[in-house]
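User: Thanks for the earlier help. One more: histidine kinase. Can you show the sequence and predicted structure together?

Assistant: Of course, both are below.
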Amino acid sequence: MTESANRRRSTRDWVVDSIVFVLAVLLGLWTYSDGEKDPVNSGLLALDFYSGIALCLALWFRRRWPVQLALIAAVISIYSDAASGPTLVLIMTVAIYKPWRTSLLVFAVNALALLAYIQVRHKNDPEAIVIAAIAIYLAVAGWGFYIRSRRQLLQTLRDRADRAETVATLQAEQAQLRAREEIAREMHDVLGHRLSLLSVHAGALAYRPDASTEEVAGAAEIIRASAHQALQDLREVIGVLRAPVGELPQPTFADLPLLVEGSRRAGLPVDLTLDAPGAMPDHVGRTAYRIVQEGLTNALKHAPGEQVTITVTGAPGNGLEVEVRNPAPNRRRGDGQGLKGLSERAALVDGRVEHGRTPEGDFRLFAWLPWPA
């Protein structure tokens, strides 16, 4: 609620504050005119009027200093009828923006001020005044508590929706990445096998100059068929990799802070240490990005809300070190395919990936990637 109280005043806030100010002035003037009948001197009545007007003007700052103004209002209300309107507004403001303990403290101070007010203004029928005033105080404070609870509920629902959307996006990206890697690995094996056949049969032709025409024709047909199938497989791989870029853009190392910020918006506390100056190859930066992404996705799935520490350090010639650490639950769900995919991805760039529990009980994902000088 502190951020809401200190944020810049919107058009809606200006309208609400203007209406509140006018109502407080009207209520204060009405109670002041009724209080003029009390057996008090004119000096106290003048102080009553000017103090009430000053407190009404102070309502424009009620979001910034709600408790301070409410306590000042309690003091002024000891002798001022004109302060009744702004006092009620300030009691409600404290209930909206501050914890219930602070609201109860302000309520108690105003209740004591009410008892002093009866003595200062020489009011008749004090029991009825106390009962009526306490009832009004409770109604106003209850209204403030209701507004506070409703705002907190709406904010919680918005946070959950944002968190769910971020988690879904991360999981969708990770799932699509794993699917593409599986297809790419499978096609790599297929292409490797077919190219190996091409090499074998081409080598046989080179080392058998005495082969008959039929044997040469048969080997050539096998080479032609294998080459044709390899081209078909290659077209299929290219078709997979040419999926719409807008759905899954290829990240770079510079996108790492944005990835971390997205996890923070999902409710995951992340501490990022980034110390990797120098021009980094694209494939190394992209691999580092995917390693951090997998670590964050696992943290969101298996340890939501726990602190995640990410350290990325390195320099040209020394390699790049990526470490993702977070508290590990007693049982980790899932089959670990994402971690296996990271190991394979790191191996493609001559790097390595390690993961497991630390002696302190954390889960640690570590990767070393080569960074040529």
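User: Great, one quick takeaway?

Assistant: The first helix runs from residue 2 to 6.
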